[in-house]
């Protein structure tokens, strides 16, 4: 599942400028769309972080397309303990959600391998992604508690 972000072009049609994929296959169409949209939102937040820094959306998780880790703006300036604990909780949930999706992807792959082996005695071939110039690289896979795949609260300007 993919989310395509497009802009109008000079010919009256639309041109894709950014494509994000769901990090793993899902059983429902809605879940796959939600995952792909979440991936798009985190990378767009990173791309437009200067514009978002002055809006209420500054606390959305942000991630560069080539990295596994994400960051959330530090809420210390707000002087709001509830917001600080909510942001810490969001960072933990985002980290665990990404790890759960990666584990789900590994389980699905192992399941496909076992089904192919039982049915035909062979392992399934890896699926090759289709190349698209607007396509952002797919998020790399990580193991649970991988320090490179954490969502953290940013304490300095990047």
From TrEMBL:
Compositionally biased intervals (Basic and acidic residues): 143-158
Comp. bias intervals (Acidic residues): 124-134
Disordered as annotated region, ranges: 122-158
Protein name: Uncharacterized protein
Species of origin: Paspalum notatum var. saurae
């Amino acid at each position: 599942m993919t989310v395509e972000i497009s802009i109008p072009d000079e010919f009256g049609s639309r041109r894709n400028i950014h494509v994000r994929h769901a990090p793993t296959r899902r059983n429902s169409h809605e879940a796959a769309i939600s995952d792909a949209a979440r991936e798009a939102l985190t990378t767009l937040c990173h791309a437009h972080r200067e514009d978002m820094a002055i809006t209420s959306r500054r606390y959305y998780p942000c991630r560069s397309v080539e990295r596994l880790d994400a960051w959330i703006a530090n809420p210390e300036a707000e002087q709001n303990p509830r917001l600080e604990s909510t942001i810490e909780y969001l960072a933990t949930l985002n980290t665990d959600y990404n790890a759960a999706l990666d584990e789900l992807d590994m389980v699905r792959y192992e399941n496909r391998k076992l089904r192919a082996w039982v049915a035909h005695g062979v392992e399934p071939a890896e699926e090759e992604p289709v190349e698209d110039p607007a396509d952002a690289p797919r998020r790399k896979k990580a193991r649970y508690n991988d320090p490179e795949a954490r969502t953290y609260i940013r304490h300095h300007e990047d």
